[in-house]
Amino acid sequence: MEKLIERFLKYIKIDSQSDPNSNTTPSTEKQWNIAKVLVDDLKEIGMQDVEIDQYGYVYATLPSNMDKEVPTIGFIAHYDTAPDYSGANVNPQFVENYDGSDIILNEEKGLVLSPSYFPELKNYIGQTLIHTDGNSLLGADDKAGVAEIMDAMDYLIKHPEIKHGKIRVAFNPDEEIGMGADKFDVEKFGAEWAYTMDGSVVGELEFENFNAAGAKVKINGKSVHPGYAKDKMINSMLIAADFINRFPKDETPQTTEKYEGFYHLHNMKGEVELTELNYIIRDHDREKFEARKKYFEQVVADINKEYGEGTAELELRDQYYNMREKIEPVMHVVDIVEESMKDLGIKPIIKAIRGGTDGAQLSFKGLPCPNVFAGGLNFHGPYEFVPVESMQKARDLIVRVVEKTAEKFGK
Predict the structure, then answer these.
(1) Which of 19, 141, 151, 175 is catalytic?
(2) Any residues with CB less than 8 A from the CB of 60 and at least 6 apart, and which?
């Protein structure tokens, strides 16, 4: 377990935040820093065919150690961290044998990781927790997955008695901005199916996710001296407020759960002349998803009809789709993980993701790719933490899935 922790700490201390406003891949220059470290680490443990392409995608192979033909499978994790919160100067803190009490993250800022607000903390009493110091996110999303895959490959190389087919691994940039699979070379990867190690709590196994779109709205106004503004000024911020209020107040992230979709205004900035709104649109059901997009377009049209053509400008882009339709025809890829979990005494939690994953896009590119837990919680902010024991279970699960695949197909 020590080496797994060492790897994780090494990776989270490398700032690799992605940028949604960039037009490059990776979206930030600093992502190259961790990508190059991963190349070195893969070579050091003895992986073969290690390469990094022009877009920062890292690929490697663990050759089969069997005489019989076994399907090539893969494991994937992203190394970027969310643009929502700083990933620089990560200063991880440890709580050993957690007793269920409040954890002071940052006394100066008044940040407390408390089971009164995060009741799931009670599930980790007696375990070792790694958390932030309140000044950054932790980066367990998804550097926990990166460390687990690396550690599992190292273990398999050191234990050749564990029989397995050819294993491919990949580490990619820009998942947090919805671009992680855009330039992923599925053909070069060459796996029949794969798993993203990018879930949360132990037992999570997901092959359903939101259909997703991103919407950028510009509200145009006209700035005039307020003393002479009568019938001349057009305040874009007030029109934006009208725009926002046209969406159902009970269809937001904070008011929905399970299979319920939503509209989420996640960023806005404005002045009299121009206000910009950034939304994400989500729904598991494809028909409802399409209806949500049409409603969004209708609101834009209504604003232009009432305030004048060109008042509102819309850029609407699909981001990914629900991978369920691509996984259901090959459900053995899910069954193998579920059986492997049970072999390890892990209770499977099969549920739909209220979010997205690179696996969704990869599934539509021809690589069926369910999502598996990596252990972290409270992603994208200062309250993020990961139990060490959860990371170890994820690492062990990778090894067991490899072994289980060989048992099923290598007879």
Answers:
(1) 175
(2) 42, 47, 48, 49, 50, 51, 153, 168, 169, 170
